[in-house]
Amino acid sequence: MIQYAAIILFVFGIYGLFTNKNVIKMIISLNIMEIGLNIFIISIGFNYDGIAPIISSTNDLGYIFVDPLPQALVLTAIVIGVGTTALGLAIAKNIYKTYNTFELDEMEESA
Amino acid sequence: MKNLFGFLISVTLGIFMILALTNTNAFPEFGHASIDNRVSSQYLNIDNVEEVGSGNIVTAIVVGYRGFDTLGEVTVLFISALGVAFMLSSPKQKRIDLKFKPNFMLRVGSKILFGIILVTSFYIILHGHLTPGGGFPGGAIIASSVLLLYLADDKFRSNIKSFKILEGVAGSLFVIIGLLGLVFATYFLQNFLPAGHVGELLSAGIIPIIYILIGLKVGSEIAGIVDNFLTEEESA
Fold it and tell me: Mind listing the pLDDT tens digit for each residue in A49-88?
């Protein structure tokens, strides 16, 4: 069951966000969460008999297709995820330049 | 103690999510989703497919039906690239020092690979309305070819200014094509070119044109992000 695997990935990501104090590890947790969410959204539209929603000629329309709408939404979500990850890593690089550490605890001590 | 607390919260959340997977219309049992009662049955309706003309239904949704949403998505990527440039760019940049020195074979081989990767990316962008792929994956492949050149040659600096111009031109043309839809048809980003036959390269009206623009814009934006991460201030 891929939906359970997606939920487990999402839970791993939340656990990582709760417990980690390292900026890089938090960004990785956020990405794991996002992958779980994307797999879950894709799985909503999946059908065992379905084929990919690509039509090479108009005679193909008799087949069963998987739902194309979740795939289109996930395409959007992946691109936004790339943007947020890049921005987060840029902030992490600036944090390292200022405090010489990625750990949030050590930053409070040095501040 | 804190770890245990986080563990309990996340496990409870996971159990609630699994319990919420009732076999209803909104969350069907895995592998038994039916599109008959969903909006997607309209996307796969033969009249609508012929009207849009795009063989790849996902592309038809992303660029055709939800083109305005895609414009917003490209804007989000643009703003994040702008934020990365704002935080990391500094004058007089050079590439950061990596631990390995590239030899002759690596430099020449990476230039040959660069051409092959670039051609593949253009193929993927051009066939976005026929095959899986399109502007976003193709743009990411363009950026990966630029990343290869950065990693293989320590003197390499891509021409970031021309990337910026390309990005701006592609983004403006996207909006201009949308406004042309307002002029020649009735609403923003409407298809005003003939749809053609489903499955041919020159079909689907403005969808391939917009996907090429998206590919160039995404490619130049991610190449700009790569440049910002891989350069540092020159310590003279």
Answer: 878 888 776 565 667 788 888 888 898 888 889 889 999 9
CB contact under 8 A, B33 and A45: yes
pLDDT for residue A27: 92
Q: Does A15 touch chain B (CB under 8 A)?
A: yes
Is A111 part of the contact surface with chain B (CB cutoff 8 Å)? no
A34: containing domain? 2-110
List of long-range contacts for B164-172, beta carbons under 8 Å, 24+ apart = B164/B220, B164/B224, B166/B216, B166/B217, B166/B220, B167/B78, B167/B216, B167/B217, B167/B220, B167/B221, B167/B224, B170/B213, B170/B214, B170/B216, B170/B217, B170/B220, B171/B74, B171/B78, B171/B213, B171/B217
Q: Name residues 137-196 of chain B within 8 A of A (Cβ).
A: 140
Within 81-120 of B, beta carbons closer than 8 Å to A belong to 81, 83-84, 87-88
What does DSSP assign to residue A60?
G
pTM score, whole prediction? 0.84
B32 at A interface, C-beta within 8 A:
yes
Contact B32 A47 (CB under 8 A): yes
Q: What is the dihedral of CA A28, A34, A37, A38, to 10 degrees?
A: -120
Nearest neighbour of B55 by CB, restricted to A45, A50, A54: A54
**B236, pLDDT greater than 60:** no
Q: How confident is the model at residue A28 (pLDDT cuts 50, 70, 90)?
A: very high
**How many domains does chain A fold into?**
1
The interface pTM score, or ipTM, of the predicted complex is 0.83
Higher pLDDT, B53 or B79: B79
Q: pLDDT tens-digit profile of B182-232? A: 888 788 877 878 777 777 777 777 888 888 998 899 888 888 888 888 877
